[in-house]
Hints:
about 350 residues, alpha+beta, eight-stranded mixed beta sheet, three-stranded antiparallel beta sheet
Amino acid sequence: MRKELEQKLARFEELEKQLLDPDVLANPARMSAVAREHGSLAKVATKYRRFRQLNDQIREAKDLAQGDDLEMRELAEAELPALKDERDRLWDELLDLTVGGEDAHRNRCVMEIRAGTGGEEAALFARDLFEMYKRYAEGRGWKVEILSVNATELGGFKEIVLGIEGEGAFAQLQYESGGHRVQRVPETEAKGRIHTSAATVAVLAEPEDVEIELRPEDYRLDRFSASGPGGQHVNKTQSAVRLTHFATGIVVQCQDEKSQHKNLAKALRVLKTRLYEKKREEEASKRASERKSKIGSGDRSERIRTYNFPDNRVTDHRINLTLYKLDSILAGDLDPLIEALKEYERQEQRAAFGADEG
């Protein structure tokens, strides 16, 4: 955790310099991105800078308290308790601010929901998850934008990709990454048997434009006609786009807008986010041994939650939490789950820091 705070402070101080750079000031788009990132880091960086100053002051006071000058020794001993109290309070605040990892400050994210095993029922479950997250986001006043969707004839989703923006969006939603399982009687089941199907959710922090450099020569752009469920043509113009990133092989396509320009803008946004996530995963794997908890790790293969309709029950397997309020959770009341996950990670952070200090 200390290493992450050092990195945040270094980045913050680098951005402070960029805000005074004439080249940055002359570029409104870059200036806006730098100012936005600087603002998002300000709270944690300034607290950590003060925390480091307090540590230095405590060390100096301890040295004086052991010196030969009686008057300076008494002054230092009198000053130490207040310095330690302020440092401890700041550290508690820093712990709370850093729960959720290094991207917790980001207010924009991309959410990908994909149907898993279970055929049409899995696609309908993916739609239910989309509606649940949409209600949760709207309840918090966040902006939700559909970036890409692949619908089925019965109204489900094979895949839907959302852009979500608002205060604390990534910090709250990152805990939703993983495998979601549903147990219920499908609408298409005549004999009333309970079926189990699944969907996966990935929540990716959306980078600022200046963080991921993406040039036209880095990807191939293919244009094609959009189509809908069953293969019928939605339009006859080549408004849909597909991007293939040469270096990573990542493929993104968007076809929901009638304008090719708008589809391209959305596809580029998703591609940049996936490239940032890949970079983030590579960095995380280097320090995987340092992280004991998988909370918020974004592992899509991990089954994180089961939704049982007959019992009105939701179980989060990561923290062994069971709630008998499935109806309200599907209606968008995700706070009981998310706050429990955040508190679990907060305690993990405290325990890990205590061990480090020991």
